[in-house]
Amino acid sequence: MRLPPIGLACLSLAFAACSLSVRAEDLPGTIAKVKPAVVGIATLKKGRTPPILFIGTGFVVGDGLTVITNAHVVKQPGIDDGSELLGVLTSSNQAAADMRSATIVNTDRERDLAQLRIAGTPLPTLKLGNSDSVLEGHSLVFTGFPLGMILGFHHVTHRALVAAITPVVDPAPTSQILNPKMIAQLRSAPYKVFQLDGTAYPGSSGSPLYDPATGEVLGIINKVAVKGTKEAALTQPSGITYAIPARHIHELLDRQPAQPAAK
Predict the structure, then answer these.
(1) Distance between CA 82 and CA 99 in Å, rounded?
(2) Is the full-model pTM beyond 0.85?
(3) Of the residues 100, 102, 226, 257, which has the fewest C-beta atoms closer than 10 A?
(4) pLDDT by residue (tens digit) across 53-82?
(5) Rg of the chain taking only CA atoms, in angstroms
(6) 148 shares a domain with 198
(7) pLDDT tens profile 172-208
(8) Phi, psi (degrees; rounded to nearest 5) at 158
(9) CATH code, domain with 205
(10) Are residues 111 and 223 in the same domain?
(11) For the chain, what is the domain count?
């Protein structure tokens, strides 16, 4: 039986509504599976009060001992000079955090990505998805620690609509608002990022952006580095959040680990 156009339209709308309902019902289960693989990034310095300083979010992939975060999160003077120990924070009961030591294996400064290696037994992992499949209008989710440890070590999840897929830097209307970072981006081939309508906070940097139905990671939240280019001309923060597509995480993981400098 052939349905009239109006009937087909109604059927399509009903199917879309049903799909959205299923995805909404799946979300609590997806979040429960994702949370154990989302960790805090911190530094430890003896004699400091408090000795552990939360600096961002990360998530575990691969063999359970590989952590992905933002490069700007681990670009700390104390880490660079060795006066602070880099680590990840985990918790099984959300009441207290345990810290594991970590080392930086690889970084991609241009795309603000860092790969860490942690010690101990493997942790639960997240699967990296195909970020090329993401379209404007897709509804995604990100989980992290937006307030750090101020209110306790608790995962926080936000919904985010993909509002635009845009180059990391837009041409400036006048040379007066160009800064060195924007010029460097313009000289190289600008990569594209996801512009989201969800609001992230400083501690959200490094949070996985994932499919609410499957939990597959499609990007990584980036608050500081991208805003330093796209929104350099704004005098007030806009609340717009950006994410680096997961394809660049795949590329980072495919690289050979960086070799320590010869002494």
Answers:
(1) 17
(2) no
(3) 257
(4) 999 999 999 999 999 999 999 998 888 888
(5) 20
(6) yes
(7) 444 455 566 555 655 556 789 999 988 888 789 999 9
(8) -125, 145
(9) 2.40.10.10
(10) no
(11) 2
